[in-house]
Amino acid sequence: KLVKGMGGAMDLVAGARRVIIAMEHTGRNGEPKIRTRCRLPLTGARVVHTIITELAVLQVTPQGLWLRELSPGVSFASLQNQTEARILPPE
To answer: What does the pLDDT read at residue 45?
Structure first.
């Protein structure tokens, strides 16, 4: 169910120096939540710096999503299979 309006999210991202998102990696049906392109109205464009899920920590950079940390027992291939956007391996 979509909720109309932005609520306080716009206020949170407008002046923040760093935006860290904590979320579940997939939806109830197993579909990826981390997409190549957002399918909903944006609260703020290009404001997220880090995404933390139960599977991994990803840093958002101009080059793409960089893997910073994998949860124990999660392989890189498994993570990529559950993510629509391409993930770059750790440096």
So the answer is: 81
